[in-house]
Structure formats: structure tokens, C-alpha cells
Design brief:
Layout: E1 2-3, E2 9-10, H1 15-30, H2 35-45, H3 50-61, H4 69-85, H5 91-104, H6 108-121, H7 126-139, H8 142-154, H9 163-176, H10 180-193, H11 198-211, H12 214-223, H13 225-228, H14 234-249, H15 252-263, H16 271-286, H17 294-304, H18 312-324, H19 328-342, H20 347-364, H21 371-380, H22 388-403, H23 411-421, H24 426-436
Antiparallel strand pairs: 1-2
Length: about 450
């Protein structure tokens, strides 16, 4: 048995395999592109490395693509077989395999709890914490995300490897819980302890956006370029945050330039990349900004994924892309896939029944929404997963829909929900102007929403 530098015990006697797996763990925590080659090296050294096989499965699962379910299940089968050959393996290996099985059955919260229990039994385990936070993030479990990260940090020696990454996890969870001062402090400490912690620096950017500190936000992200520009596609997401700060300034040319060079520099069907792109173009269109043929590139990607309802958050952004591009047939196919998924079992089907399907139908229809329905969707949005910043595109759309409803019924409820998550911003002022008739309509929104003037 060998222990890697991040505390995970392996039923393995090959130091090269364990060292390579630790490199993969670092890359996962730092959102670096080296995770796949490091994992391949670990498995080349020991094909029965249980944690390596489990991580293969998780790597497929977090991409939330229907066609990756089969390879993820193959990885699970290989991990189970390796565990059996290792005569039961280590407690950490057992936890990884059991959590993967739960997650593949659609039980993200149970899987996260299993990983957190593993961390509770042995202090300073980075990979279980990072995977657990990812699962709770996808499941929309914000309280669980904070509880898990806080419990892990309470037992973590600051001198132990991975401390900065773990603190970054807690910083992000604090921000999503609205504890902004604590979140910023933790995020800054995380980056100081681990300069490669892009997640922690991104948590601080979230705080600044929520606080309306636009100039500071731009300066923070630009100064941190050495850390995040070397990330995998997470770099596109950090650039998306930078674009949001420029959008708040009304600097639309800067936003479009960032879209082309750093948010969407190349075609990608990773749902996270699509979410960045679609939500940014949607916001620009709401402000009446012409975006050229950018929707068409996204439409081609979304069209190919229109029937994939694996993850509600991903499917809703596919729907945004199709609607933004004016692809009514694709949008109807996407909505139909969500309706079928809602009839099934598992957490994601429950999310659809709870709020996802209601939101999708609201996005796809021009019909006025009853105030109670608007308020209910707004209140339940966290269940779809993602961050407050990511879900804000839906709150903005609901607010605009309410603003153009006779009597503006429901607008106050939507704006109240939004204001609980962030300081009043430029958009809030603009949508209020739409209600009072002080704003012009400008160019039409791609969904015929009233465009906002800048």
C-alpha cells in the first residue's frame, strides 16, 4: 500500500503509478489540462489502480453527455474488478468506487456524502473533497456544498498539501451562501496558499460581481491571468466573468472582443463552454446589441445535443442557444426531451418536475406568465445547479417577461429574489425603466423580449 502526496491510500506498490495519480489530482484541483495525460500515465504503470479507474468514470460523468454513460460504467466495472483483485482495497478506494456507482445512478447528493464521509475518516483528502463539491454544484445543493467544505477544512492542517485548494472550495461555497466577506477572505487566503487555485480566485471574482465592484473585478481577474490562462476550458469561464464586468460597464465592444478571443475562442460542445457562450450572447441580445453570426455557430452545437437531457443545467443552456438562434424546431425537440426526462427517476428528473420543466416552458413561450408562477420559478432556480451568476440569465429573462406583462405583475417578486443574491445593478435599473416606460425598446430580443437601452 502506498499513499500519494494528497493523502489518498492506494492498494498499489508502484511508486510511478501513485505519483502520476497525484499529478492527475493536482490537475483536477487546479483545473489544468494535464489531468488526462497524468491519469493515462498512472494507469499505464498500473492498470489495476483503483482510484485511477474511478477517476476515469468521474471524468466522463461530469461532462454530462449521454454517450459517455457507457464508458463511465465501463470504468466503474474496471474499478470494481481491480478492487476485488486488491482484496478489498483501501477505504479511500472503496469510497471512490461506491460514490461513482451512486453518481451514475443519478444520486449525486448521496455520492457526495459518501466522498465526504471518506474525508471525515481521514483528514486532508483533496480528491474526495473536490469531487464532492463538483457533484453538489451540479445537483444544486448549495447548503451541502458549504457544509462539506467547512467540515473538511476544520480538520485540515494548513501545512498539508492541498490546503489552498480545499480553502478555495470553501470560499466558493461561502460566496454561494451569500457570506461574501468570509468568502473573499477565504478566497484570497486560498490563492496565497496555492497560487494555482483558479477556483479560489474565481470565488473572489464572484464576490466582486455580486457586490457590484466592477473596477476591482476587472483588475483582480487581469492580475491573475498567469494563474487562470493556463487552465483547461475553465479559462473560458474566468474570461466569461471578465466579460460580465465589462457588460456591467456597458462596454459592449469589449464584451464581444472577449467572446471571440477568450470565452468562445474555438468550437466546443462541452456544456460548460456552451453555457458561457449562450448566456453571454443572450444578455447582449437583451440589451439590443447585435451579435452578428455568433448564434449560428452555437446553434450547430446545440442542434446536435438538443435531445440530451442528462443534466438539466446543460439542457437549459442548449435550449437558450437554440432559442437565441431562432431555431424553433430544435427548441421544441429540446423541450420534448426534457418532458420525457421529467417522467423518469433520479435527481435530475426531480429537478425537472420541481422547476426545470417550468422554466424551460417559460423560456420557449411568449405567453404571459402568472405572477405566482414567475415567483415560484425564481425561488426554485438554485435546484438546477450552477452558480448564482450563471443562473442570473434566467432571472433576467423572467424579470423582462414580467416587465412586459400588463400591470407588471410578478416583477417585484422576481427582482426581490434577484436582489437577495446581488446588489442592485445596471440591469435592475434598466428593467425598472422598462416598467415605467422610461426606456426605449431598442433592437428586438431574439425571443421578442423587450430589449434594454444602455
Amino acid at each position: 500500500m502506498l499513499t500519494d502526496r494528497y493523502g489518498l491510500r492506494h492498494a498499489c506498490d508502484d511508486p510511478a503509478a501513485v505519483a502520476a495519480f497525484a499529478d492527475a489530482t493536482f490537475a483536477v484541483a487546479a483545473h489544468r489540462p494535464g489531468a488526462a495525460p497524468a491519469l493515462a500515465a498512472a494507469l499505464a504503470a498500473d492498470a489495476d489502480l483503483v482510484a485511477g479507474r474511478a477517476l476515469e468514470g468521474f471524468a466522463c460523468l461530469v461532462l454530462a453527455r449521454a454517450e459517455l454513460d457507457a464508458p463511465a460504467r465501463r470504468a466503474l466495472a474496471q474499478a470494481r474488478a481491480a478492487l476485488e483483485r486488491a482484496r478489498g482495497g483501501t477505504p479511500e478506494e472503496v469510497a471512490l468506487v461506491e460514490a461513482l456507482a451512486m453518481a451514475l445512478d443519478g444520486r449525486f447528493r448521496a455520492a457526495a456524502a459518501r466522498l465526504e464521509a471518506c474525508g471525515a475518516a481521514r483528514d486532508g483528502l483533496l480528491l474526495p473533497l473536490k469531487l464532492a463539491q463538483s457533484l453538489r454544484f451540479m445537483a444544486g445543493d448549495l447548503p451541502g456544498m458549504l457544509a462539506g467544505a467547512s467540515a473538511a477544512l476544520a480538520r485540515w492542517d494548513e501545512a498539508a498539501p492541498g490546503f489552498g485548494f480545499a480553502l478555495g472550495c470553501r470560499a466558493f461555497a461561502l460566496e454561494e451562501a451569500g457570506r461574501l466577506h468570509e468568502a473573499e477572505s477565504a478566497g484570497r487566503r486560498a490563492v496565497a496558499a496555492e497560487p494555482a487555485d483558479a477556483w479560489g480566485l474565481h470565488a473572489v471574482a464572484h464576490v466582486m460581481e455580486t457586490d457590484g465592484r466592477v473596477g476591482e473585478g476587472v483588475a483582480w481577474i487581469e492580475a491573475a491571468r498567469p494563474a487562470w490562462s493556463g487552465c483547461n476550458n475553465f479559462a473560458f469561464h474566468v474570461a466569461w466573468h471578465l466579460a460580465l464586468f465589462h457588460l456591467e460597464r456597458g462596454a459592449h465592444d469589449a464584451v464581444l472582443a472577449l467572446y471571440d478571443s477568450e470565452v468562445r475562442p474555438c468550437p466546443s460542445d462541452d456544456f460548460r463552454d456552451v453555457a458561457n457562450a449562450a448566456s453571454l450572447l443572450w444578455r447582449l441580445a437583451q440589451e439590443g446589441v447585435p451579435v452578428g453570426d455568433r448564434w449560428e455557430e452555437l446553434r450547430r452545437v446545440a442542434q446536435a445535443r438538443r435531445c440530451d437531457a442528462t443534466l438539466v443545467f446543460a439542457a437549459l443552456h442548449t435550449l437558450l442557444a437554440l432559442l437565441g438562434a431562432g431555431d424553433g424546431a430544435g427548441a421544441r425537440a429540446c423541450l420534448a426531451a426534457l418532458e420525457v426526462r421529467a417522467e423518469g427517476a433520479g435527481e435530475q428528473a426531480e429537478v425537472l418536475r420541481h422547476v426545470g420543466l417550468d422554466l424551460a416552458r417559460a423560456l420557449a413561450s411568449d405567453a404571459p406568465l402568472p405572477p405566482a408562477r414567475l415567483a415560484r420559478i425564481a425561488r426554485r432556480l438554485p435546484a438546477i445547479g450552477g452558480s448564482h451568476a450563471q443562473r442570473d440569465v434566467f432571472l433576467r429573462t423572467l424579470a423582462l417577461r414580467a416587465a412586459r406583462t400588463p400591470g407588471h405583475d410578478g416583477l417585484d417578486a422576481v427582482l426581490a429574489t434577484r436582489h437577495r443574491l446581488r446588489r442592485p445593478d445596471r440591469f435592475a435599473a434598466q428593467v425598472s425603466a422598462v416598467r415605467t416606460g422610461a426606456a426605449g425598446t431598442g433592437a428586438p430580443h431574439p425571443r421578442a423580449e423587450p430589449a434594454l437601452t444602455t
